Amino acid sequence: MESPSILIVDDSSFIRSQIARELEEIGAVVTQAEHGESAMNIARSKSFDLIITDVEMPVIDGFRLCTMLKEDPQTRTIPVIILSSLDSDRDVDRGFQAGAAAYVSKAEAKNLLKNTVQNVLKKSVFHKDQLILVVDDSDIIRNLTKEELEKAGFQVMTAENGRQALKQITNKRPDLILSDINMPEMDGVEFCRTVKKDPHLAVIPFIFMSSNDDRSIMRRMLQLGASAYLVKPFNLEQMVITVEKLLSDHYLLLLKEKEKINAERKMMLASITSLIFALEARDHYTRGHSEAVAMLVTEMAKRINMSQDDIDAIGIAGRLHDLGKIGVPDSILLKPGKLTEKEFSLIKQHPVIGSNILGSIPSLEYAIPVIRHHHEQFSGKGYPENLKGSKIPLWARMMAVADTYHALTSDRPYREGMPRAKALQIIRDVRETQLCPDCVDIFLDMIVYLPEGSHP
User: How far are the Cα atoms of 161, 222, 258, 441, 453 from residue 227, in angstroms, in the given order?
Assistant: First the structure.
């Protein structure tokens, strides 16, 4: 988190200033209040990432302030750290009962406060990103559970039964599901079975809530795929801790899986890239073409504010876009004269060959439509499938522009590369026929702002 906004509440201006200096060292933007009443007014008028409060203060003390913050829908998601010289077990328990995320003794603040602040902020950001679905036919349980989870900083949506929940899931995928068992229309068991049958939803942690404390029922629910079983009436704090633990464990598993996939993808990309280098080494005319196209298309992606993940992905697709030429004989690729119809039909197979090569690599699945369709034409006269207009994937349309420009400005066995101005004029001329007009406009806008000599 960059520049977290933190409210410090303490009746001592000296202590407030000391804490403020420490927090400003980690980049925090600090606001100060001298007691609970002032803090409540400030918290309702301005957004904060964290509140740090003393306990012993005039007007409204820290325990009462924490309770009021957690009871107010406007401020309940703000995590609170209690920083106090009152550090007996009884005081600490009161702080957590009031809804504090952490409790730090002033005697240990020098050593603990910064780390505690960073940990609470990190946890808060994680919670804000997590969506929890609560499914129960009881309005009271639904609302109580929702309120307690929102106090902990989670996003929450609710449903009255399994059928209603399934409709919600199709629109917005939750990160965790809390469900009752006995409900009308579709009970929790059928709902859980349906979720676990869907490969896209099966990994979502599923918690059952039920007044039935029979062990055989619990085991049956866990066998269905449930991650936990809470017996009603349950302690709401226990429920929040269970949710946090499951989400944290699930997140770590997903992170490890992502790291594994990324490592495998890097190894596979290294192998494929070496094949492309070998391919381009056969012909000094096309050496560096794939890297150049990748650079151009990533610059286009930046111009339209794609996410960094998408920018990286389209760059990889750019490096792989001519992979299928591995399957084209040198006698055709390197031919200095005009290709025969039969020879051109073999050249036209390279997008299909390339997409087939990547078809067995799940982590590069996103690149397949780009590779397969980067020679389609906006008019529908391209290959391999004669796709037209917006039916051509956007990334493939972008790739076509970058590929065309670099091909025009590069030397080929059958002609010399064109001057930049002439190549850009040709691209303008084939706008709306061969090339997507929107992608041409993005390219022309981008190429003007690239420093001279930085593009091929």
Answer: 19, 6, 21, 51, 57
Determine contact, residues 3/28, Cβ cutoff 8 Å. Answer: yes
Angle at which helix 308-320 crosses helix 394-409, to 10 degrees, equals 50
Same domain membership, residue 377 and residue 402:
yes
The predicted-structure confidence for 92-144, as pLDDT tens digits, reads as follows 989 988 988 889 999 888 888 988 998 888 888 777 888 999 999 999 999 99
Bridge partner residues of 209 (DSSP): 180, 230
Q: What is the arrangement of strands in the sheet containing 80-84, beginning at the earlier edge strand?
A: 29-33, 5-9, 50-53, 80-84, 102-105
pLDDT at 163: 93
CB 305 within 8 A of CB 356: no
Nearest residue to 312 via CA among 362, 374, 359, 366: 366
Strands 5-9 and 50-53: parallel
The reply to whether 193 and 333 lie within a common domain is no
What is the tens place of the pLDDT at every residue in 204-240? Answer: 889 898 888 778 888 888 888 888 888 888 878 888 8
Contact 81, 104 (CB under 8 A): yes
Cα separation of 38 and 36, whole Å? 5
Structural domain includes residue 265: no
Question: Of 176, 237, 167, 162, which Cα lies nearest the Cα of 205?
Answer: 176
Instruction: For CA atoms 194, 196, 202, 205, give the dihedral sign.
Output: positive
Q: In whole angstroms, how large is the CA radius of gyration of the chain?
A: 30
| Residue 76 in tokens | 């309940």
Show the beta-strand stretches assigned E in 95-240: 102-105, 131-135, 155-159, 176-180, 206-210, 228-231
Element (H, E) at 311: helix 308-320
- CATH code assigned at 41: 3.40.50.2300
Which range marks the domain in which residue 192 is found?
129-251
* Domain presence at residue 247: yes
